[in-house]
Write a structure and sequence with these properties.
Elements: E1 5-9, H1 14-25, E2 29-34, E3 45-48, E4 66-69, H2 81-104, E5 111-117, H3 139-153, E6 160-166, E7 168-170, H4 177-185, E8 198-199, E9 201-203, H5 204-216, E10 222-226, E11 232-233, H6 234-244, H7 255-265, H8 270-273, H9 281-285, H10 295-304
Parallel strand pairs: 1-2, 1-4, 2-3, 4-5, 5-6, 6-10, 7-9
Antiparallel strand pairs: 8-11
Helix pairs in contact: 1-5, 2-3, 6-10
This protein binds NADP nicotinamide-adenine-dinucleotide phosphate.
NADP nicotinamide-adenine-dinucleotide phosphate (NAP) binds near residues 10, 15, 35 and 168.
């Protein structure tokens, strides 16, 4: 154990589980803040919080090396008014609660790495967006802006801040991949809509290494796109996924089918139809060594990993 404590708020989910394991293997003491701690014996401690109010969990922050905040209601649901409110509140409230706790403890964490999303840019069409691009104007862009603003507004003079605008994370244990691969196995993996919308993606293992870099690189503060340098169109993405899963052809899914399918699956059709062409300007400057910069090897790795 290197005795540095890292708090992962919302660390019980898809990204958090992989990140917690990696940090544990790197000999950090890992503490997950969760609404439902499990009692099982584990080298990774789980501490209860509700994501909005002060409580005993705040003690964990005193003297911690880092906070990583991944908290947020999953966006994979219909984007009606109630769900959009819950998506926003779960994110903004968690940032505010953590910031208030940091302000109270004697020795606040030295670094805070905050999740955001490439949804910040709205629908980018085929315009490539690095971190200088302005915020978009749709509902998810507005949520990302409020989410990021909550951290910007927090006065934390002893804590460096990094915000990662994360793209579609590809891994087996969550996110979009399990659904897309299941549909593709059933020969339903055709291009979605016109297929020209861009997907900015990243392999889970590269994203985890970006979080580690943010924690460990002294003096690094930024808002950075956490994606590969190679966004692809939806048609290309689905073609590569079919190739990786040995499904040579599937009929394309026109918009009305996507809308119907999304309703049946209890999700939001715009998530599949929006175009997000994002460039990782900051990580390119840092010469970040992506293990999976190209889509096909990334998909093949995920398809064969047990
Ligand atoms: N996965 C992606 O492709 C992707 C892409 C871009 C951005 N992101 C962002 O990265 C973060 C982590 O993503 P993920 O895929 O790991 O998400 P996830 O699997 O849904 O995990 C998020 C965690 O947040 C906590 N949470 C959910 N609703 C909450 C609420 N109302 N109040 C307090 N906590 C709540 C949950 O922890 P407990 O139930 O244990 O409390 C959950 O484990 C999210 O903020 C997400 O928006 C993810």
């Amino acid at each position: 154990m290197n005795h540095k404590r890292i708090i992962i708020a919302g660390g019980s989910g898809f990204i958090g589980r992989a990140l917690a394991r990696e940090l544990y293997l790197r000999h950090y003491e890992v503490v997950i803040l969760t609404r439902t701690p499990r009692t099982r014996t584990s080298d990774i401690r789980e501490v209860e919080w509700d994501g909005r109010n002060p409580g005993n969990w705040e003690r964990e922050l005193d003297g911690a090396h880092a906070i990583i905040n991944l908290t947020g209601k999953n966006i994979d649901c219909p984007h009606n008014a109630a769900n959009l409110r819950a998506i926003t509140d779960s994110r903004v409230n968690s940032v505010r609660a953590l910031a208030a706790a940091c302000a109270c403890v004697a020795t606040p964490p030295r670094v805070w790495v905050q999740a955001s999303a490439v949804g910040f840019y709205g629908d980018t069409s085929d315009r490539a967006c690095d971190e200088h691009a302005p915020a978009g104007s749709n509902a998810l862009a507005s949520i990302c802006r409020q989410w990021e603003d909550a951290l910007t507004e927090a006065t934390l003079p002893r804590t460096r801040k990094i915000t990662l605008r994360i793209g579609m994370v590809l891994g087996r244990g969550g996110g979009a991949f399990p659904v897309l691969s299941e549909l593709t196995r059933w020969y339903l993996g055709g291009a979605v809509g016109e297929g020209r919308q861009y997907i900015s993606w990243i392999h889970l293992s590269d994203l985890v290494r970006m979080f580690v870099l943010c924690v460990e690189r002294e003096n690094f503060s930024a808002t950075a796109n956490a994606v590969t340098p190679n966004p692809v169109t939806n048609a290309e993405f689905m073609r590569e996924l079919r190739g990786a899963l040995k499904r040579p052809w599937s009929p394309p899914a026109p918009r009305f089918v996507v809308k119907l399918g999304a309703r049946l699956l209890g999700t939001e059709p715009s998530l599949a139809l929006i175009s997000q062409r994002c460039v990782p300007g900051i990580f390119l400057e840092l010469e970040f060594p992506w293990r999976y910069p190209k889509l096909r090897p990334a998909l093949e790795n995920i398809c064969v990993t047990p």
